Every structure is written in structure tokens, then in C-alpha cells.
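stuck on this fold:
=====
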Amino acid sequence: MRGDSNHLIDKSVVMKLVAALACALMIPCALAGTVRWKVEFAAGDAAYRQSDGGQWKKCAPGAVLDGSGMVRTGKKSTLVLETGTRRVTVGPESTVSLDALLAAKDSGPLLDLSNAASRAVFGILHEKRGRMTETLGVRGDDAGNDRQPVWSDDLEPGQPGDQALEIARKNYDEGKYEEVIAALKDAGGMQSDEQACLAGMSYFNLGYYRESIDSLDRAASSKALGNELKTTCRFLAALSRIYLGDHQSSIADLESLAEARPASDLAPRACFVLAGLYRVRGDADAARRWYEALISRYPSSDLVPEARRKLAEMQ
């Protein structure tokens, strides 16, 4: 600009000042958790959910994601994210907090942990339908003719809330998890530990991990539910915390499960996930201990080959 020689302004200086101001304004945003990730590539079943709730939405190339949200991928899915100078590829069957992804110096162990959690939970949420309905106390042929459903004593005629619980069980058995939640809410909320259990597991199946934790924690500490069902709820609560990036709490819960319930079907899965958690923390010795515990304690587990492979990678 021109004028009085004492007031000449160098445009390059102005531009530098503007750039510095822009950077200064961006720093608080990053610290506040508003870092943005750009979707560079998305294939298959890749989805995003905001931190404050809402539905999972399909990721599309070019979309910009709030850094405090979550992403997940299905089978044969890939998601490539970019923020600043970082570029991260999220492979198949992973669920991860973007906050945790940003905080991780190396995204590899974190994504590997997410995949390990998905593998560990597959065996308990996608097993034979008959066993699942028996565990949840669903009435009918699937519950088995030689034994009463686990919760049959809670369904005496005329007991308040029994119809809502019956409807919720039926919907859960049919995989209608949204309708489970709706039925329980219509009945006035989680009035019993059994209802909390169904709600927590339904939220988990829907991928609503933050919403699942309170209900799962309540069911896990219940005096009315059987030990294996309580163990399942504790395990799922730990996985929810992993997906949300709360690794420390997950370690405490899973170590307690592995040591206190060694005969549980979930104990080898707890060992497997614990090893992944310690790898994320950079504690290779602890990771090896839990892989070795899985192999020695549960040699017939379907996770043993993978544990052996992980150990070999760590040599």
C-alpha cells in the first residue's frame, strides 16, 4: 500500500501476521478435541458416529469428520483418513475412537487392538442362536426343554414390567435391538437388572458403546443374574471402553475377569485382548505374558494360532 513513507506496509509481513494469527486460533480448537479428519478413501461398510450420539452414518470420500467421534469398518472394508500430516488406514473389522487415534504415536497397535476386540466378541454375540437365547432366558423351543430359562422366576403372571421384559427378550432373540431399547423405555426405563442386561447388550450390538456402559456395569454387579451372564456383561463393558479409548479401565476389568473367572468361556478372550492393550501401552513384556497365558491355559482356544503369530511378530 502507498501513502506517507512512514506508513508503508510490506504485504509479505501482513500475510505472515495473518498466518500466525490463524495458527494461534487453530491450536485451542485442536486441544479442545475439534481436530478434523478428512476421508480420503472409503470402501465397503465404513461408518462414522459423532461423540454425542446419533446414528452410525456411512463414510463417503471427501467427508470431514469431527475428531471426537468414532469410526468402524465391516468385513472387506477399508477407510483412509487424513489430518494435517497424518494419514491412517483403518482395515476391516475395526472400531476406534478418533481421539485415541490422534493421540497414538503409532496407530498400528491401536488398530490391531480394535481388531482383536472384534475377533474376541464375535464368538459370544454370533454363536448358535439356541445357546444365546438360553443364556438370555428366552421362552420357547430355543431355551431347551430340559431346563427353565435363566430368568423364568422373574416372569410370574401379573408382576409389574413382565410384559416389557418378555417383549424385549423376543426382540433381542430376533436381532431387533432398537426395538429392545424402545420396549424397555416404554415400560419406564431399566427397572430391573435383567432389563439393564438386555439394554446394555442391545446398545453394544448397535455400536452405541457409550450408552451401553452404565447398563452393562449395573448388570455385571447384579446379585440377581448368573455368574456367566454377569461375566459377559463385564467383558462387553470393557470392550466398549476400549472402543471409546479408555484403556486403563479396560485393563483392570479384564485382568479381574481373567484371574477370577478362569473357567469362563470369556477368560481366553480376555487374555487375548489384554495382550493387545499392553501392546498399545508399549509394554511388550506384559503383552507376551498374556499371549503366553492364553496359549498355556487354553491350548484348544480358537485364538491360540493368532496369539502364536503375534508372539512371533514381537521377537
Notes: The first strand starts at residue 36 and ends at 43.
